[in-house]
What we know:
- By secondary structure, the protein is mainly α.
- The protein has five helices and two strands.
- Helix 2 (about 25-35) packs across helix 3 (about 40-50).
Amino acid sequence: MGYQKLAPNQEDHIRDMRARGKTPQECSDYMKETYDIDVPEWKISYITGKKPTKIGSRMPAPSKMKRKYKKKGDRLAVGPAGYMNEKEAQIRAIEEKLGLKVPVEQAVSDITKGLEQIFAGYTAIFMQLRLLVIKEKGKVFNMAKAAGIQITGEDIQE
């Protein structure tokens, strides 16, 4: 037997039987004997969970979870500046948890400035080393010139 939709009065009868303490198996057997309809036990549990419908009215769609809408009171108060969003609230919670007296934005800017200073220091060191290499190279060329050795571009390897 294929899919058969139960009539509203049959669903009401199943609800009454379950209210009287009958098991889903007994309800299924009763529907098989009386109406020659094979109703699985899961459908009986589904029917008992639904609200009864009026005869002739459309069956309601299965209930969905209700959406949660944010209310005005759900926002997190900050003070005179207004409200903060969830990300700002998380940052503030982390600051309070770690006991930081400096805001996260200030700490990030300080770290950025420190990294820039380190980069500038390394750049200065490498420039100094480059100048020393050029000076040494000039000394070598001068010594070779004084000795009468001609150095061409083909002799220099980079």
